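Q: How would the structure tokens look for this protein?
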Amino acid sequence: MIVVDGQLINNRSCASVERHWRMAAGSVAAVNRGVSSKSDVAMVPLSVLACFALLALAGATEVLQCAGENYENLSDNVQLSPCKKPPCKLKKGTDQHVVITFTPDHDIEEVKNHVSADVFGVNLPFVGVDGNSVCDKLETENGEKATCPLKAGTKYIYKDSFPVLSFYPTIDVKVHWAITDTQKNKDVTCFEVKAKIRS
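A: Here is the predicted structure in token form.
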């Protein structure tokens, strides 16, 4: 649940925005034809753009370090399926999968996702993904079920999947994905990747 421009956004509100996504798709098409501008696209409600859950994931994916960070072997520890080399093509109507391997350097009580996308220069959270706890979706490197709290020096594997809905606009985005220690507000791991939503 988030608030964008004073509007409360949750999973229920996102379920009823198909017509707005079609409006967004029309705005994107207008920009591509050169008959519109960013200001025209900005008229699409931010609450609509915020309801835009995507990302994914497949064998090791070439991803970028987040600004100011330098995680060792980052690309070897991120799998977006199906995507090995960006920009990742997110096909509408399919499920996308993510596998992130990380090793905390300190004990952690709880970790959550921080997932956002750069859409026309505006940073928007992914509703249904951003802010979610990942504690119930963890395994050890031996494939055993794991949960919080996490132990320093232990390797964990986070696995999840998300739908790319058919009414999403055809659009290019840059996705920022971090797993964050909620108590210290510190990223345990973080990556960025360019993506294209396609039919």
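Residues 18-33 form the longest helix (16 residues).

The chain has one domain: 53-198.

Upvote if useful.
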